[in-house]
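DATA CLASS: polypeptide
GOAL: derive structure tokens

***
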Amino acid sequence: MPKKEDNNAPKRFIDLFRISWIRSSLIIGIIIIIVGVIILFLLKHFNVGNSQLILDAKIIVREYGLVGIFFATILAGTIVPLGSPALVTAAAAFGVEKILLVLLATTGFTIGMMINYGLAYSLGRPYVMKKVTSEKFEETTSLWNRWGWVLYVIFGLIFFLPVELLSLICGLLKTRLDYFLILSFIPRLVVFTILAYFGEHVGIWMGIV
């Protein structure tokens, strides 16, 4: 589908961050990271890794974590904000096998994105407008008209950004399904792989693994 030129859409990558909801998403994400790092240092300082609570949690996560992560990431791939990156990091910190964790999380997230795509494809604009404000819809559509799949990859790699919103736009515009699936899966595979290795090292550092 040819894209119309939109003079209001950002012409440079850096201009994306001047859009209020994108900037807000990044600021919230950075705050969450800072708070998370502070909590990790506090837990390390108080040697929580060897507490009975953590030991019990580790057993539960290793026993049921993969199944839980799979279903949680399906929901996180839709509009339900479950924080799948944090779930993957935590599961890896508790010693869940990384490769299987990454594959299941990525597959689950892609299924969730596919649900968004299918609903928007089938139900059309009225359904999408129930999920987003008209202002955000217009801005996102303008961004898509300017950037297309490049924007989708950027949102997929920067996990604070609402790539789930773009999946609705893709479904509404009836974009190519093969591109959609590949570009939903691969960027999130990269993100989850990085987070899984990071989580493993956090677990080792805290004495959990």
